[in-house]
Amino acid sequence: MTPPLNYNAFRPHPWHGLSVGQAPPSLLRAFIEITPSDSMKYEIDKLSGYMRLDRPQRSSSLSPTPYGFVPRTYCGAHVAALSPTSVKGDEDPLDICVIAEQPVDRGEVLLDARVVGGVQMIDGGEADDKIIAVLVSDAVYGGITDISELPRPVVARLIHYFSSYKSMPGEANKVVIGGAYGRAHAEAVVQAAMLDYEELLQTMSQTTP
Predict the structure, then answer these.
(1) Looking at residue 95, what is its pLDDT?
(2) Does 4 have pLDDT greater than 70?
(3) What does the pLDDT read at residue 83?
(4) CB 121 within 8 A of CB 175
(5) How much is the pTM?
(6) What CATH code is assigned to 13-203?
(7) CA triplet 6, 72, 96: central angle to 5 degrees?
(8) Which residue of 46, 137, 178, 183 is most buried, as measured by CB atoms within 10 A?
(9) CB count, 10 Å around CB of 171?
(10) Contact 166, 175 (CB under 8 A)
């Protein structure tokens, strides 16, 4: 007799099918899309859950850390409310950068991460916050609890990357960096993104026949 199919028989969708983490908003799960060695910009395909090639990196800058998103989050009105100069959220999962001593050289992996801060980024008027976290099991960074404990050059590299990774000569840069913020505000952004996600699910359930 063939056993009945169940949810666990299939690969879960990285955005919808994985948990947000062990103890949100402080301990999160990060799904990594891009590593520091990637010269291509990869993104999750929201419909299928598989990785897709978005574009070659537009500049010579490479992400200083593994970079991806937090499952079951969404940048909507609640995230935008924490970014006073934005007009809306970017309508994507919440981005996260995970700092680790040892290189992470492959994408499409899950990392357990502790939130320590974030970078307020506005892209074309849309709130596009970048949560900064540390790898929980990391021997060097794992014990850090706030962005103020990180070496300043580490944070400066992240700010420089996000301020320049979409800019090209002869084109106006639509990205505005509002600066870095600490753990308390970062956790508020995570909570807002979780709430935006729940409201997104409600909206989807109301519009799905």
Answers:
(1) 98
(2) no
(3) 95
(4) yes
(5) 0.91
(6) 3.90.80.10
(7) 130
(8) 183
(9) 9
(10) yes
Tokens 């892209």 correspond to 123
Backbone angles phi, psi at 34, to 5 degrees: -130, 140
Q: Measure Cα distances from 117 to 27, 52, 80, 180 in Å.
A: 12, 28, 17, 7
Kindly give, in sequence order, each residue whose CB lies less than 8 Å from that of residue 186, ignoring residues fewer than 6 positions away. Answer: 25, 115, 116, 117, 118, 131, 132, 147
Asked if the peptide bond before residue 25 counts as cis, ω within 30 degrees of 0, the response is yes
Token pair belonging to 144: 């850090």
Please list, residue by residue across 77-115, b when 16 or more beta carbons sit within 10 angstroms of its beta carbon and e when fewer do.
ebbbebbeebeebbebbbbbbbbbeeebeebeeebbbbb
Q: Where are the domains of the chain?
A: 13-203
CA-CA-CA-CA torsion sign (8, 92, 195, 193): positive
Residue 108: which of 57, 151, 62, 67 has the closest Cα?
Answer: 67
Run of H or E including 160:
helix 152-164
Of 144, 120, 141, 122, the residue nearest 130 (C-alpha):
120
pLDDT tens-digit readout, 37-57: 888 888 999 988 999 987 777
Q: Is the pLDDT of residue 68 over 70?
A: yes
Residue 18's identity, in one-letter code, is L
